[in-house]
Specification:
alpha+beta, Immunoglobulin-like, eight-stranded parallel β-barrel, 16 helices, 36 strands
Amino acid sequence: MSNYKWQMQQLQQGRLHDPFAVLGVQPCNGGSIVRAMMPTAESVNLQGFGAMTRLQGTDIFEFQLTRKQTAALPQHYKLDWVEKHQGNSYEVISPYSFSPQIGDLDLHLFAEGRHHHAYRFLGARLMTVDGIAGCQFAVWAPGVKRVSVVGSFNGWHGLRHLMRNRGYSGIWEIFIPGLTSGDNYQYEILTEDDSVLTKIDPYAQQMKSRPQIDCVVPADEQFEWQDDQWMTQRKNWDWQREPMAIYELHLGSWQRNKQGDFMNYRDIALRLVDYVSALGYTHIELLPVMEHPLDQSWGYQVTGFYAPTARFGSPNDFRFLVDLCHQRGIGVMLDWVPGHFPRDEYALARFTGRATYEHADPRRGEHKDWGTLIFDYGRNEVKNFLLSNAIYWLQEFHVDGLRVDAVASMLYLDYSRKDGEWMPNEFGGRENLEVIAFFKDLNEVVHASFPGALTMAEESTSWPMVSRPVYLGGLGFSMKWNMGWMNDTLEYIEFDPVHRKYHQDKLTFSQLYAYTENFILPFSHDEVVHMKRSMLDKMPGDEWQKRANLRLLYAWQYAHPGKKLLFMGGEFGQWDEWDCQKALDWSLASVAGHQGLQFLVGDLNRLYRQYSALHQRDFSGDGFEWIDCENRDQSVLSFIRWSEHDHIVCLFNFTPVPRHAYRIGVPEVGDYHEILNTDSDYYGGSNQGNEGVLNAHAQVWKGMPASVELTLPPLSALLLRKQS
């Protein structure tokens, strides 16, 4: 068989590795030949020249041009064709008349894992080439025989738009004229073993909402950002010394419309910004907004890493939410999931018919607990996919930081594995060296490129220096979730007060490690699901005591060193566990006891932001001093929070017994004011207290130069500040 016949046969069968070598204009006998693959055409005409000839038994059409005709042929010639069975006529500029659009430098950097903006040349992008509008498609699919773009524009036929192979890079590309935003598409892949797969675009920036899975050509319209002031100020934000109170929420269940359906990003924004502002929060943190098929995964099983979920609208609708938050002085954090991805056949799993994005060895490539797959962090192109993704959300959506999910599961090769189920690193250890390198790269790039943007690790072990700079030997994260503090504190508060005296170390232990990392103190979504009960329902006692305990708990969180985070519904004391399939029970927010709790959260945020002693030294041991941590019998704790020019005395009574004539030491003589009493009737308490003002005398008490006698209400916290 001649090479020509073999090529035509391979082309007809969709097996030709380099379709651009035979399609389009090819030199022939001193002139040229125009060749087209048109599997749905009855007849094809080369516009301006005449009817093309169908090769017998194929869907390949040719037209032989003389040298003179070749010279007269437009660079981007047009084809007219009549569709089989329909009889309808169509016209198109041949996509095989365009040269490659991806530069060699992009290919080189991508192969090295050093391309920070891979999303700018991979995926689907509307663009104009040689004055012709259309869409450029590009996908990384190494080791396959053929890749095609299929979509609504070509009848989902895999032989209509065969892509150009870019050699060693594993990248395939094609520019298709005439496509517009809103066109649906996927990729058809002929694997090494001749299987045909249909896959979504890993770099798709817009997708259809579940249960549909198609990718969507995104609009090329520019979003008119109004947050210049915020973005400028963020660059100089001294986040270590400034207050940071985060309201964590799930967009699908925070609120819904009257019909019980999802709201648009814009509608959510209009309600959310007012609500969060009124409560005094500095930031919101959104559970993953990346496209995902299953509502019940809360967004943590991502299929479209570059696509804001279509459940709530378009990418620009999401930009509106971020922009409005910024205009109102509220930062936006995103939950980001680089630790795993689901096995859905249409997505990343075995993208080329074999392990591509995931590690090939199941001892490193599978999360058995979650039924998901683990990225191959040692593969440059995969590392590039994730690194570019982080940059994408920060760059294109102006988000202020990323909370990195399940960091512990990534760092340890033996995470949730038995002996024999994991493979040690090259030194025989259980540390994932590739992940360590990835995190260091990620954090260095983010902090260098986006001053003031934060990375926050959900890391639940004692891995050292998670939130220390890379140049000091750390992983480079800005902050780390304090899971130890969260678990110990919740365990303590759930004890009946009569038993708390035996467990006071649960509260005091945190001071032994509180300054080893830059900690966030989280009461997150994970603590109010899966039979763990809501924050309010966790509390012991009757209904009044439950609310009192919860007020006390929140005051403890805000007085303790560290930035703050609370999941939605906790601020007004939702009774039921969080259910992602319905809105919060907002009717409770107008009920007196619940409303009082909401008032308290708002006041805690305002006090935390107002007084430097409560935030300036969150990450430094010189911002905290015990007054008394030994009163176990009465379950009372007291300490001082310090700033450069201020201090606040914090007292906590973890029993329902009021303490009258209770004496504590203070650092200075003078009048101290109650700036917070969680037992106030304004918050739903019994309204016991000290009528606002306390006089401290020069009476030494437990090493303090002065002391004050006061009433400590039941299940309450007092914050005292010396009058200037």
